[in-house]
Amino acid sequence: MTTSLFNANGTGTSTISGNLAVSGSGSYGSLFATSALFPTVRISGDAYVDGILSIQGETSFASNVYLGSDLNASGTLFSNQIRVQDLAQILGDFSVEGEAAVGQSLSVGTNVSVGGTLITGGEATFDNVVVQNNSMFNGDFSVFGEATFSTATIGSLVLSTSGISPGEGFESIHFSGYGVGAGLHLASSGLLIAGTEIPLGVDSIFGVSQGEQNRASYLQIVSADSGAGEGNGSIIGLTAGADPDFLIANSENGAILFMTNGLERARISAFGGLSLGLSSPPDEGYILQLDNSSSSRAKSYGWDTYSDGRVKSGIYDLGYGLKEVLALNPKSFLHHSSKFDEEGNLILGEGYPEIGFIAQEVYEIVPDVVHKPRDESKGLWGLDYGKFSTILVSAIKELNNKIESLNRGGENISSGPSSCRGVSGRADIPAGVYSYEVSMTWPSSCVWGPIITLTPTDYINSPYRVSEVSGNGFLIELESSQDKQVGFYWHAYESSVSDPVVIPIPTQNPPPQNTEEQVSATPLLEASSQEVSPPEVLNESLEPTSGGVDIPKDLISDEPQGGVEVVVGQSESS
Length: 574
Fold this sequence. Notes:
- The chain is mainly β.
- It folds into five domains: 6-175; 213-223 and 231-252, no CATH class; 256-290, no CATH class; 314-389, no CATH class; 419-574, no CATH class.
- The strands form nine sheets. Strands 1, 3, 4, 6, 8, 10, 11, 13, 14, 16, 17, 19 and 20 form a 13-stranded parallel beta sheet that branches.
């Protein structure tokens, strides 16, 4: 036993089989073991050091080592490599340039610095820890300050209750800010929880929770392109409240895609349209769109269309009827699945037998039931087959009038000959204009004068009417001009009178030529210089010809007179 400096600085070996106490009585001393060969110090018993234990070589303790075991002392351990089979308790710094291994618990009162691998068989408690290589803790791991684990190639933190063999693992890892109980929690089941310490379910993999009421809880995903912060990227979570909604949100001006098996199955576009099965972005003219294929079928017990009279204005009897039905050409065909490529080319797939109409043909007869795509390189023409029922009802009523007229003794049929199919067109009235002239050529096959019907293409905040109807055209008048362009589909059809009026066909003064401000309409039949009576039923040819009908001014009034009727459309505000 010595109460002064103990210096093992020779070339031999100093063996201590019992305890090594340096200034065990309370006065501080030092133990230095140095040589050019970096000697090894092995202590088979307990070691108590109240001062500094500095060993340039390897240090091995078969039992416990206490540096600063007196709470008032501050012991420090410096070594290249250290192995402790049992407890290591250090109130000062713990600095090892190489590997450090502790068989049971390691307790360091201040800082831990390990240049190599740090291994503990039991509990590890530090204020601050810096480990340059791997760290393995088989018990509890507590750091009250900063913990750094790094290496040039690989770094890892392994926490385990019984080693790191397959199937064995840690109880849990919890990360939280200062004074915050709820943080990021990784449970032994593999569940990763953010925002709460309460497990969300044994079958869960990831959970996010604020742990408080009336707050939204969500996971935000951002990228370098979207930018970070509120209002960027995408969100998955729950809304606030007692009965929260599940939230999927894209804060960018893009779509939300749903994919299976590597293929897009559904898409919610930036403008709110839902498409199912499309391989290209949907047409913005639709809020719901399915792919053009044989598998794109939908069925339901019922489907209602809004038809409340409170939301309708400009109501008048339909001008379409038997003439339009007779002009339609039902077809049978192969309907092909299709898609558009990136250049806008339409690629056809397999075809399936179907019956129906051709949208482009129907557009020339009844444009109101046809959807024309804004861009034909992105969308297909479509038909609203449900609206055909309205035209069929009108045609049946018209046919019934003919039958009743015949039953009364062969009176003249009130609806006129079926060969007169009238003319149709569209008028787009520029902003600021309240009177707009539409030119047309009344077919020579029509015995009676025209009736004009209008169908607005947009909402119009003004009453409107038709005036100055003749075989050459008519005026559309608005009570007040509009601040934007407004459009009308118009249809001129033959009036219904019980006493037909024969209209002379002009031999001079042909209809005026169209101007840029006029919407032209194509006559459907050749003109004749003779007075006409109801002719035979016309064939289905719709080739455009020239000619027209000049209707006398005295036949035009606000009431049916001489075979001419003016139909006035009016909005709700009138």
